Amino acid sequence: MSNKEAKAPVPFSVMNGDPELFIVGEKKYYVKPMPVGEALKFVDDDIVLDKQIFNLALKDRRKKIDKYLSEYCTNEKGEPMSLQKITDDNWNIVDLKHFIWKLCDISG
Predict the structure, then answer these.
(1) Is 74 helix (H, G, I), strand (E, B) or coil?
(2) Could you tell me if 33 and 15 are in contact, meaning their C-beta atoms sit under 8 angstroms apart?
(3) Segment holding 38, helix H or strand E
(4) What was the pLDDT predicted at 9?
(5) How many C-beta neighbours within 10 Å does residue 33 have?
(6) How far apart are the first and last CA of the chain?
(7) Which pLDDT score, from 0 to 100, does residue 11 have?
(8) Are 68 and 52 spatial neighbours (Cβ–Cβ below 8 Å)?
(9) Which of 16, 60, 65, 75 is deepest in the core (most CB within 10 A)?
(10) How far apart, in whole angstroms, are the C-alpha atoms of residue 26 and residue 32?
(11) What is the pLDDT along the chain (108 residues), one digit of tens a residue?
(12) How far is C-alpha 102 from the geometric centre of its chain's CA atoms?
């Protein structure tokens, strides 16, 4: 079975703009999909999808990652996330990569 066949479809609620559960360690977060206009900006922002260390290494990309976290990721209390908050919550680089992948996946 190919990866494409094994992948679960994005739920209709997410396609409607509802957030999708995202778990890091024992904590729950919610990621909501980007509208088309924001997805176009995301592409123009030249965010690295795989090696997050490169997004953190450059100050301008770090600001962009912080922006996408605050706009599209919330904690269990509904509070927007940030680089500082994910640092406080002990996310690692792989967790950040999974957030970026989730954001791209549910945004289409």
Answers:
(1) strand
(2) yes
(3) helix 36-44
(4) 63
(5) 22
(6) 22
(7) 58
(8) no
(9) 65
(10) 20
(11) 455 555 666 555 555 668 999 999 999 999 999 999 999 999 898 888 888 888 899 899 999 999 999 999 999 999 999 999 999 999 999 999 999 999 999 987
(12) 5
Residue with tokens 């360690």: 25
Nearest Cα residue to 22 out of 108, 94, 84: 94
Phi and psi at residue 60, to the nearest 5°? -65, -35
Single-letter residue type at 59:
K
The answer to whether 84 and 94 are in contact (CB under 8 A) is no
Name the one residue in this structure whose structure tokens are 């990569």.
Answer: 97
**Which strand ranges, in their side-by-side order, compose the sheet holding 20-24?**
20-24, 27-31, 73-75
Phi-psi region of 23 (alpha: psi -120 to 50; beta: other; left: phi over 0): beta
Domain segments of the chain as ranges: 25-107
φ, ψ for residue 23 (rounded to 5)? -110, 135
